[in-house]
Amino acid sequence: MKSGKSIFEKLTEKDYGFMDPGAVQGRVTAKKLLCSPDEVWSVTGDFMTEARNHCAATAVTNFVRLKSRALPLRSSGRLDNTRHIFTSAHEIIGNGPVFRLGTRADRYFRENGIPFYCDVVPRKQVLSGDWFSIIQKETDRGNCCGLLVCAGLFAWHWVLCMGYEQLSDGRNVLLIADNWNRRGVRAYIPGPVCRLKGITVFRPAVSA
After folding, report:
1. Torsions phi, psi of 14, nearest 5?
2. How many folded domains does the chain comprise?
3. Which of 174, 98, 171 is nearest to 135 (CA)?
4. Strands (DSSP E) found in the chain
5. What is the pLDDT of residue 4?
6. CA distance 183 to 38
7. Is residue 170 part of a domain?
8. Which of 26, 34, 162, 181 is deepest in the core (most CB within 10 A)?
9. Cα separation of 194 and 159, whole Å?
10. Which burial class, exposed, middle or buried, applies to 9 when counting CB atoms under 10 A from its CB (0-12, 13-18, 19+)?
11. 52: containing domain
């Protein structure tokens, strides 16, 4: 169930083509998912009083919440407080549209002692049509990807890619936290309705 969108999101609302995974017709031949199928997420509607057009900061918040359960994070602040995570992330990432998330997320991770860094996939590679092999490789390695998608001139949105499905008919489906739906993942197939414009890989930092 959706918790709500910001006023900007409602005014510029487009059909991004996200759907329930069960609505995708076809036989699944391969699947990888980096979270629980019933994962509970933060959504942009949780932070409408202090931010606007803030899907990038929400995506980073969801990534940190997910990883903070398993890693001994060095942050001086507690990362079990979702609003604290969002506020500290938003102070650096800011309101959108955010077209270059990698640099800002890197700074947030570094300043808060979170042992991850960003690797931005070159735009030429993203637009070459080889996007699935890039995301599949990173997902198989256990790395989440932030995806910048576009459904129109004023309809840009960051989502968190948590997995994929390959179908017997050759289609590839991305399983995402769309930052609007509270529970579970949504299915996204990049195409004319909603184009994939950017991939930022969140990688664990290597300890010295």
Report:
1. -130, 165
2. 1
3. 174
4. 28-33, 116-120, 145-152, 155-167, 172-177, 186-188, 195-204
5. 53
6. 6
7. yes
8. 162
9. 12
10. buried
11. 15-204
* Interstrand relation of 186-188 and 195-204 (parallel, antiparallel or unpaired): unpaired
Q: What is the DSSP letter of 19?
A: B
pTM exceeds 0.85, yes or no: yes
Query: What's the rounded Cα separation, in Å, for the pair 106 and 44?
Result: 21
CATH of the domain at 40: 3.90.70.50
pLDDT at site 76? 44
Residue at 2 is within a domain: no
Q: Is the dihedral of CA 38, 105, 161, 10 positive or negative?
A: positive
Residues 6+ apart with CB under 8 A from 66: 35, 39, 144
Mean pLDDT, consecutive 10-residue stretches, the chain (208 aa), reads 50 75 92 95 91 93 88 52 91 91 96 93 90 96 96 90 96 96 96 93 81
User: DSSP assignment, residue 46?
Assistant: G
- How far is Cα of residue 15 from the mean position of the Cα atoms in its chain? 18
Whether 192 maps to a domain, the answer reads yes
- Which residue from 97, 138, 98, 92 is spatially nearest to 119, judged by alpha carbons? 138
- C-alpha 83/C-alpha 67 separation (Å) is 16
The rounded distance, in Å, linking the Cα atoms of 93 and 190 is 25
